[in-house]
Amino acid sequence: QVQLVESGGGLVQAGGSLRLSCEVSGTSFSAAVMGWFRQAPGKEREFVGAIGWSNDNRVYADSVKGRFTMSRDNAKSTLHLQMNTLKPEDTAVYYCALRPFGIPTIRANAYSAWGQGTQVTVSS
Length: 124
Known about the structure:
Elements: E1 3-7, E2 10-13, E3 18-25, E4 33-39, E5 46-51, E6 58-60, E7 68-73, E8 78-83, E9 92-99, E10 113-114, E11 118-123
C-alpha cells in the first residue's frame, strides 16, 4: 500500500521559514512525479508545486515562485519543500501527492496518492 507522510509544519511569523518533508513508502519513489498542494479554511485545494524525476524538473505556482523550493532525495524516498519569506496567506494545510508516471502537472486529479497533511500557520 502506498503511504505518504508529511511533517515539518508549525507556527512561524511572517518573513520566516519552514521546511516540510514527505516520506513515501510502498511504491517506486524514484520513478514518480511528486507534488505539493495546500488548502486554507473555506477555500479550494491549491497547487503549490511539482517535481519530476530529477531536481531540475520543477513547476511552481506563481504565488510561491522565488520563495518556495522543492527537492527530492531518492535514496531516502523523501520529498522536501523549503518555504522562505512566508506570508500570512501561505497559512494552510499542506499535502504531498504522488503521480506514478508522466511529468509534473498542476492538476490534482492526476495524482493517485495523498498524504494526511501538515498544518502551516503564518502570523503577521
